[in-house]
Amino acid sequence: MRKGEIPSFCKSKKFWGVDVDDIYAPVNFKNQHWIAIWISIPKRHIVVWDSIIGHISPEELDEVMEHFVTMVPYLLVECTLSNEQKVQYTLEPYTYARETDGVPQCRAGDCDPFALKYIECHALGMEFPKAFNKRNGKSIREKMAVDIFQELPMCHEWENQDNDENLGTYK
C-alpha cells in the first residue's frame, strides 16, 4: 500500500436494507449515561439495552427514541439505490422496546464499556461475558480502548497521515 492510499478494508461499501439488516449504536443521554440500541431494518423495530435501568425514566426514553424511530425510516428512503428500492420503504415510524431480561447492570460511570460490549456480543451472537461485571469496570475500559486501537492499525495510519510526526507515539 502506498502512502496516502486508503486500505480496502476501510472503504468497503454496503447498503442498508440490501447488504445490512442490523444497525447498532451507542447512544448518549444528557452527557451522563450510555445505552446501546439495535435497529432491525426488516422488523422495523429498535431494541434498547440499558445497563442502569433507573437512570432514564420511560418518559425520557420515549423522548430520546422519538428521534430514532422517525429518522431511520426517513434515512432508508433517502439513501436507497434506486426508485425501485424506495418503494419498499415507508416513512412509518419504527417501534421500540427497552429490553431488561438478561441485560447486565453496572455501576455509574461504567455504562460506556457495557454498552459497547453488549453491542459487540449481540452482533457476534455471543453471550455477554460473566467476567464483565461491576467490580472491574476500569480495567475493562482500558482493555477495550487497546483492543479498538489495535483492531485496524492500517486505518490509524491513514487517519493520521497529516500528523505523521506523532504516529509513533501510539505504538
Structural class: alpha+beta
**What is the ordering of alpha helices and beta strands?**
EEEHHEHHH
- What is the name of the CATH architecture? 3-Layer(aba) Sandwich
Number of helices: 5
| Total strand segments | 4
Task: List the strand order in the largest sheet.
Answer: 1-2-3-4
Task: Please bin the fraction of helical residues.
Answer: 25-40%
Largest beta-sheet details: 4 strands, mixed
The whole-angstrom Rg is: 19 Å
CATH topology-level fold name: Adenoviral Proteinase, Chain
CATH class assignment: Alpha Beta
Alpha-carbon distance between the two ends: 19 Å
Whole-number average pLDDT? 78
In short:
By secondary structure, the chain is an alpha+beta fold. Helices cover 36% and strands 15% of the residues. The longest helix is centred in the middle third of the chain and has 21 residues.
Characterise this structure.
It is a single chain. This protein has 171 residues and is an alpha+beta fold. The protein has one domain: Adenoviral Proteinase, Chain. It is 36% helix and 15% strand. The protein has five helices and four strands, in the order βββααβααα.
Layout of strands and helices, then pairs:
Elements: E1 22-29, E2 33-40, E3 45-49, H1 58-78, H2 83-86, E4 95-99, H3 111-124, H4 137-151, H5 153-159
Parallel strand pairs: 3-4
Antiparallel strand pairs: 1-2, 2-3
Organism: Brassica cretica (Mustard)
Keywords: Hydrolase, Protease, Thiol protease
Pfam families: Peptidase_C48
Short descriptors:
171 residues, alpha+beta, Adenoviral Proteinase, Chain, Ubiquitin-like protease family profile domain-containing protein, protease, Papain-like_cys_pep_sf, thiol protease
